[in-house]
Amino acid sequence: MQPVHGFNFKKISICLISGLLMTCVSLMASPPAQAKIIIVAFGDSLTAGYNLPASAAFPNQLEKALLDLGLDVEVVNAGVSGDTTSGGLQRLDWSIPDHANAVILELGANDMLRGLSPQITYKNLDEMITRLKARKISILLAGMLAAPDLGKEYSTSFNAIYPDLAQKHDVFFYPFFMDSLIGRTDLLLQDGMHPTAQGMALIVKNILPTVKDMLAALKK
Question: Could you tell me the pTM of the whole model?
Answer without folding.
Answer: 0.85
